[in-house]
Amino acid sequence: MSTGQGTSLRRYQRVLLKLSGGAFVHAGERGISMVEVDAIARQIERAAQSGVQLAIVIGGGNILRGAQFTAASSSVQEATAHYMGMLATVINGLALQDALESLGCQTRLSSAIRMDGVAEPYIRRRVRRHLEKGRIVILACGTGSPFVTTDTAAAQRALELEADILLKATRVDGVYSDDPEKNPHAVLYSELSYQAVREQNLRVMDPTAIAHCMEHDMPILVFNYRREGNIVRAVQGERVGTLICSQVPVPR
Ligand code: UDP
């Protein structure tokens, strides 16, 4: 789907943006902060103005993660807990939808679990049609199945919607060799191969998501959405953050 414009700037036609629930709240807090949601919506609106087709998979970790309930002492079954986590993504989706529409964006909220009163059911061909018409599509409820995360959903949707790239928005500048907050010598990679991410156990996305992308050669850009303008830069193909793709030398 992309039209090459040299190595430093590729214009994407369709991108899949993965936003974790953490983007909907102040650092270290839980719940939803509309100050944060509005700030990210403003960046998304500017990105959409560039003409790129934008599908967004949203997480729910600011509200609930299935793993919270996996202790044997919990009376909530593990699968139930994951369904609860998926429902949390719908709450975030509704907040983001209204924030984007208040800025004049056309949006659709599409849910992998049927919830007719608040969202459309996820139908791949329908979502593609919305994207072609310039609507921003927010994808809620992950894959619709328990025991995985919204990272895996992002990889899956990027593939089936034939996005040019999966943009993984994070709170750090990209992928480091080590935790930059603990190790001042940690190196920020500009490019990495999928293989290197797996072999070095780098914490980027969950391993299933990386495996999906690797198998189908879906590039991933890990970048810091908190730097103003970075979402626009990322969708315009500017080299921010860390690009994960095939055929990059394994770093030593
Ligand atoms: N989840 C799931 N299946 C999916 C996507 C998500 O069961 O396809 C559940 C899982 O329990 C997960 C929770 O929903 O912890 C919230 O998603 P996630 O943790 O990926 O949110 P994020 O960390 O991106 O905010």
Structure notes:
Helices cover 33% and strands 17% of the residues. It is of the alpha/beta class and 252 residues long. It has one domain: Acetylglutamate kinase-like (Carbamate kinase), CATH 3.40.1160. The protein has a nine-stranded mixed β-sheet with strand order 4-3-5-2-1-6-8-9-7, sandwiched between helices. The longest helix has 25 residues, at 78-102. The structure holds uridine-5'-diphosphate.
How do you describe this structure in short?
By secondary structure, this protein is an alpha/beta fold. The protein has helices at residues 34-49, 78-102, 124-132, 150-160, 194-199, 207-216, 230-235; strands at 14-19, 53-58, 107-111, 120-121, 136-140, 165-170, 191-193, 220-224, 242-245. The protein has one domain: Acetylglutamate kinase-like (Carbamate kinase, 3-Layer(aba) Sandwich).
According to CATH, what is the topology? Carbamate kinase
Helix content: 25-40%
- The H-and-E topology, N to C, reads as EHEHEEHEHEEHHEHE
- In whole angstroms, the N-to-C terminal distance is 33 Å
Major sheet: 9 strands, mixed
Radius of gyration: 17 Å
The CATH superfamily name is Acetylglutamate kinase-like
How much of the polypeptide forms β-strand, as a percent range?
15-25%
Q: Can you count the beta strands? A: 9
Regions with little confidence, pLDDT below 50 for 5+ residues: 2-8
Give the ligands present: uridine-5'-diphosphate
CATH class: Alpha Beta
Domain unit count: 1
The overall pLDDT average reads 92
| Tertiary shape | globular
**Second rung of CATH, namely the architecture:** 3-Layer(aba) Sandwich
Q: Which structural class best describes the helix and strand composition? A: alpha/beta
DSSP helical segment count = 7
The neighbouring-strand order within the major sheet is 4-3-5-2-1-6-8-9-7
